[in-house]
């Protein structure tokens, strides 16, 4: 395994931690700033929307720059944002810190995906992207439970101080382990990168990303309230329960990458269908502590198994200029995050209870599955038309042995 993949995963760990750890600390932060659950949800929604902005604008701004220095600069921004969160003295200041930290997120994973794919042979690209995203899954398996435990016992600010330190360590890792040779990759102008969006399949992939991830996060954003108020777990058990979700993410990410290296579209259809079933089961059985344990692990597994395939699909259909499209798809993941969190908050505010976000997630995921089936069908028709056109363009191939291409 290239050492650069480990460095990228380390960076992903830090960024994943700052994105997800707030979910386990949402009750404590809401109490500190004296705001409602829905208002506290904006620490998640605001972060996600800022990721979308950063994924597009920041990636476009740096697309012609050497990738390694860009990754280092993005981690500096990440460190600054978490430092602001650690010292925030008001709800508004906390929002600002979350926004600053989020601006690096989309560009880091978008550019990092291109770098990761460039470090391995063609038949291992989705797997390489999965390894980079292992940082996100490790953040959930190890970082989020520990960060939640730390925040509950030493105050939630201690968690953000710890994330700031991890950000510094990740920066050093990128500086030392990612080869500068990758900077020699052919650069495209912003106009050239924008040409990738002429592909309808790129847009369909982005829509599936928004809906697929929105479904999972519609269910997961308010999970701390679901676990305590519906399933009946003690609040101090939440960090350890999140280990199950994180373990599911870890396994699902690796398995999803391997499946996507065999067939991206088949893998995504199967995974999204599985996620729908898991979310419906969770919504129906959330009052059962035992069933909830299984649901948490399966929701994480199926939810994150989509990530390598969705990222690779966008890069495949934007192969000539993948950087901005890759960054846009990272933004799409977080736009889905924001959509799911917002809709979940709406249903809670309507008094529909803490299982209502899970039903929202299931509904959104059904939409993702339908779009994915349509996209896969259109891709098959397009490939068949391309092969037929190529055959018609060379009708005499086979008559002259000299004209037959080498295998």
Helical segment count: 16
CATH A-level architecture? Up-down Bundle
- The total domain count is 1
Q: Mind telling me the CATH superfamily name?
A: MFS general substrate transporter like domains
Radius of gyration: 21 Å
Cα-to-Cα separation, first versus last residue:
30 Å
Summarize the main sheet. Answer: none
- Tell me roughly what share of residues is in helical segments: over 70%
GO molecular function: transmembrane transporter activity
InterPro entries: MFS (IPR011701), MFS_dom (IPR020846), MFS_Efflux_Transporters (IPR050189), MFS_trans_sf (IPR036259)
Protein name: MFS transporter
Subcellular location: Cell membrane
How would you sum up this structure, described in words?
Mean pLDDT is 82; it is low at 397-407. The chain has one domain: Growth Hormone, Chain: A (Up-down Bundle), CATH 1.20.1250.20. It has 16 helices and no strands. Helices cover 81% and strands 0% of the residues. The protein is mainly α. It is globular. Helix 4 (67-87) runs antiparallel to helix 6 (105-117) and helix 12 (238-262) packs antiparallel against helix 13. InterPro entries: MFS, MFS_dom, MFS_Efflux_Transporters, MFS_trans_sf. One of its GO terms (molecular function) is transmembrane transporter activity. It is found in: Cell membrane. Residues 4-380 form the Major facilitator superfamily (MFS) profile domain. This is MFS transporter.
């Amino acid at each position: 395994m290239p050492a650069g993949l480990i460095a990228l995963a380390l960076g992903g760990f830090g960024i994943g931690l700052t994105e997800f750890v707030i979910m386990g600390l949402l009750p404590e932060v809401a109490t500190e700033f004296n705001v409602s659950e829905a208002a506290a949800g904006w620490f998640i929604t605001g972060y996600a929307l800022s990721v979308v902005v950063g994924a597009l604008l920041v990636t476009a701004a740096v697309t012609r720059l050497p990738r390694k220095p860009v990754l280092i600069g993005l981690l500096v921004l990440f460190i600054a944002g978490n430092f602001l969160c650690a010292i925030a003295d008001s709800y508004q200041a906390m929002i600002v810190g979350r926004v600053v930290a989020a601006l690096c997120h989309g560009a880091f994973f978008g550019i990092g995906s291109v770098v990761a794919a460039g470090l391995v042979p063609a038949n291992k690209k989705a797997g390489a992207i999965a390894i980079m995203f292992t940082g996100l899954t490790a953040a959930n398996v190890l970082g989020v439970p520990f960060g939640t435990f730390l925040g509950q016992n030493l105050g939630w600010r201690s968690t953000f101080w710890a994330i700031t330190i991890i950000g510094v360590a990740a920066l050093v890792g990128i500086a030392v382990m990612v080869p500068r040779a990758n900077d020699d990759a052919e650069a495209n102008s912003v106009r050239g990168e924008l040409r990738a969006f002429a592909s309808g399949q790129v847009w369909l992939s982005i829509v599936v990303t928004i809906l697929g991830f929105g479904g999972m996060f519609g269910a997961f954003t308010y999970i701390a309230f679901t676990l305590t108020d519906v399933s009946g777990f003690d609040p101090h058990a939440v960090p350890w329960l999140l280990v199950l979700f994180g373990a599911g993410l870890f396994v699902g990410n690796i398995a999803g990458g391997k499946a996507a290296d065999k067939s991206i579209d088949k893998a995504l259809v199967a995974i999204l269908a599985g996620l729908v079933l898991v979310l419906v089961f969770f919504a129906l059985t959330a009052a059962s502590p035992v069933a909830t344990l299984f649901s948490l692990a399966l929701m994480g597994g199926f939810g994150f198994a989509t990530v390598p395939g969705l990222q690779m699909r966008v890069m495949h259909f934007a192969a000539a200029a993948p950087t901005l499209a890759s960054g846009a798809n990272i933004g799409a993941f977080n736009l889905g995050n924001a959509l799911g969190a917002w809709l979940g908050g709406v249903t809670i505010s309507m008094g529909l209870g803490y299982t209502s976000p899970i039903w929202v997630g299931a509904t959104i995921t059904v939409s993702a599955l339908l779009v994915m089936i349509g996209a896969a069908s259109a891709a098959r028709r397009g490939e068949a038309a391309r092969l037929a056109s190529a055959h018609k363009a060379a009708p005499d191939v086979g008559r002259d042995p000299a004209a037959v291409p080498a295998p």
